[in-house]
Specification:
Structural class: mainly beta
Shape: extended
Strand content: 35-45%
CATH topology: OB fold (Dihydrolipoamide Acetyltransferase, E2P)
Number of helices: 1
Number of domains: 1
């Protein structure tokens, strides 16, 4: 299984670009705090998002934004100008959500809040919506397993 979860702050503004085939993509960096044996350090990772997720990032995120990222590791290698082989590891974003947003002194959020993007979400034509996950309606007077109502007189204890 190849699954990564990260929580941190973006190190640069996302800039949406387009591949030769016309697919939107964005490359960003994330700084993740690490606490180890009474010492604090910061780890830096490269992030890549595609299509609707990339457009979401370009629209709503900026340098310093706190994000929660779910993705997978992808390795690649290339030769630089000097002919030296460079290996890199990127996190390919599958889902991204806003972490806590900064508030200005007047109490207004600087960031769009409650945002979430997944490569398979269906967004409205007027932009991305602030929809929460739909929860199924609660069943009245039914037990947690979806059965018939339970009369306390019928319980054996």
């Amino acid at each position: 299984m190849n699954k990564v979860f990260l929580s941190g702050n973006l190190t640069r503004d996302p800039e949406v670009r387009y591949s030769q085939s016309g697919k939107a993509f964005v490359k960003m960096g994330i700084a993740v705090n690490r606490h180890y044996k009474e010492k604090d350090s910061v780890e830096f990772f490269n992030l890549t998002a595609w299509e609707k997720t990339a457009e979401f990032c370009g629209r709503y995120l900026k340098k310093g934004s706190r994000v929660l990222v779910e993705g997978r590791l992808q390795t690649s290698s290339y030769e630089n100008k000097d002919g030296v082989k460079i290996n890199s590891v990127d996190i390919m974003i599958e889902n991204i959500e806003f972490g806590s947003s900064k508030q200005r002194s007047d109490g207004v959020n600087d960031d769009y809040s409650g945002g979430r993007s997944s490569g398979n979400n269906d967004y409205s034509n007027s932009g991305y919506s602030n929809r929460r996950e739909q929860t199924p309606p609660r069943k009245n007077n039914y037990d947690d397993f979806g059965g018939e109502p339970i009369d306390p007189e019928d319980t054996p204890f």
